Structure formats: C-alpha cells, structure tokens
Amino acid sequence: MAMQKLKGAVIMGKDTIITIGRQCGSGGREVGIALAKDLNIPYYDKELLKRAAKESGLCEEVFEKFDEKPTSSLLYSIVMDPYSLGIGANGIDMPINHKVFLAAFDTIKKIADEGPCVMIGRCADYALADYSNVVNFFLFAPMEDRIKRVAERRELTPEKAKDYIQKTEKQRASYYNYYTTKKWGATTSYNYCLDTSVLGIDGTVELIKHIIDHI
What is the pLDDT of residues 105-124, one digit of tens each? Predict the structure, then answer.
C-alpha cells in the first residue's frame, strides 16, 4: 500500500481527530463511516454542513450548492483579514458563498474542540493545522476501480462515471488548492496517503486504526 508520513511528530491520544481527503470513487466515505463506527466516535461529512447551516442561520441547500466548490478570489482576503476590506467579522455585506465557507471553517474548529471524530474533506486538515491531535489521511485508487464504484453507486455508464469523477475532482482540487497553502492529493499535503484498492475498504480501515494506535 502506498503510504507516506510527513516529517515531525504528531502528538496523539484519546482525543484523536482524523481527517480524510479522498479521490472521487476511492471509498473515502465508506472508510470514514466504518472507521468512526469502530472507534465509537462521531463522523462528519454532510453532517458538518447541516451543523454549519444550523449554527449560521443559513439554509442547508445553500451549503450543498457551494460544498467543496471554488469561489472568487475575494474570499482569501476576507479569511486572512476580514477588516482589511471594511467587512465586519459577523459577515455582514459578504456574498453568500463567502459566508458559507467561513461558517464551515468555524464549524470544523468547534467540532474539533469537542473531542475525537472523523471529518471528510472540506479542507479540515488545513482548518485544524494548529491542532496537535490531528492526523490527516488522503485516500486514492486506480481510475478503473473508481469508475466501477461510482458507476454502481450512481447507476451510470462507465463513460458517464468517469466524467463525473473528473468534474468532481476538478472542483475539489480547485477548492482545496485555493483555500489552503497545500496541493490537493499531493503526498506532502497529508500525514498518510493510502491506496484503498490494495486492502479494500475493511482492510484500509484496519490499517488506519493500526497507524493511529502506533503513532
């Protein structure tokens, strides 16, 4: 199994937070759900969006629309220094997509402060860069395996499944590369990169648990 560990020690304990970036069709969601169940800790994927919507007062449909999709360059300035543009920290006068990103970013940190969990995508690894109890994984698999999984899950032809994968990954990469100082899918952007086709979903879950236990 392909795997790379970043330099530098990661301080782990009972409050371990696991983030999972993933190629479309690699089984990241399945791995995350099974891992959270085995470890008896919360799992956040779309659940994160629901909570962000509830706490921000924005509707869930808005979060779904802008979920892991790139937006305008104005956002970077707002995230780095919301006052530099004369915009208040409460988000007044910000475009809706900016509010969605900032609400999700804030929710990720709130969830992490509550205890151990598994988070899928949404730049969670970057949002929690200052947390010493976080370990970041990226899951990938050969294109043929991903096409098969997506085609079965979405009832698509292999050709349409491949188109869906490429479109989804282009959006995820653009979103991640823009909002972080790292590159989506690059081995140097995560603590561990794992090929799910080698051990399968269950085997990958067991390997992640083994890694967590031995860090």
Answer: 999 999 999 999 999 999 99
Any alpha helices (H) in 57-188, and if so which ranges? 60-66, 74-80, 96-114, 124-127, 143-154, 158-179
H/E stretch holding 209 reads: helix 196-214
178 pLDDT tier (thresholds 50, 70, 90) = confident
Q: From CA 140, how far away is CA 161, in angstroms rounded?
A: 16
Which of the two residues, 86 and 16, has the higher pLDDT score?
16
pTM for this predicted structure: 0.81
Confidence of residue 70 (pLDDT cuts 50, 70, 90): low
Count of beta carbons in the 10 Å neighbourhood of residue 157: 10
Report how far residue 201's alpha carbon sits from residue 114's, in angstroms, rounded to the nearest whole number: 27
- Closest Cα to residue 23, out of 171, 214, 203, 157? 171
CA pseudo-torsion sign 184, 6, 30, 143: positive
Closest CA relative to residue 49, chosen from 96, 103, 117, 110: 103
Q: Name the nearest CA neighbour of 41 among 129, 135, 126.
A: 135
For the chain, how long is the longest CA-to-CA vector?
52
In angstroms, what is the C-alpha Rg of the chain? 17
For the chain, give percent helix, strand, coil, nearest 5.
55, 10, 35
Instruction: Return the H-helix or E-strand segment holding 37.
Output: helix 28-39
Tell me how far apart the alpha carbons of residues 160 and 76 are, in angstroms, rounded to a whole number.
34
